[in-house]
Amino acid sequence: MQQTIPLPALMKPEQAAEYLGVSPQKLERDRYCEKRIPYVKMGRHVRYRATDLIAYVNGNVVNGDG
């Protein structure tokens, strides 16, 4: 049985980093260099939508097909 963990609709970079298992600095580099993970800019604040993080994770699944 798969357990679901409720996620807030908008997450601070620290929360998003914890969910993804990376450092907040990795997300900062992504925002400025790679721009692969969508984010929301609210004034000076950066937030990540849970739906975008889930889509990012699902879009990066690698099958062992070779």
Summarize this structure briefly.
This protein is of the alpha+beta class and 66 residues long. The protein is built from three helices and three strands.
Describe this structure in words.
The structure is a single chain. The chain has 66 residues and is α+β, with helices and mostly antiparallel strands. It has a three-stranded antiparallel beta sheet. Helices cover 44% and strands 15% of the residues. The chain contains three helices and three strands, in the order βααββα. A hairpin with a 2-residue loop joins strand 2 (40-42) and strand 3. The termini are far apart.
Jot down its keywords.
3-stranded antiparallel beta sheet; single chain; alpha+beta; globular; 3 strands; 3 helices; 66 residues; 44% helix
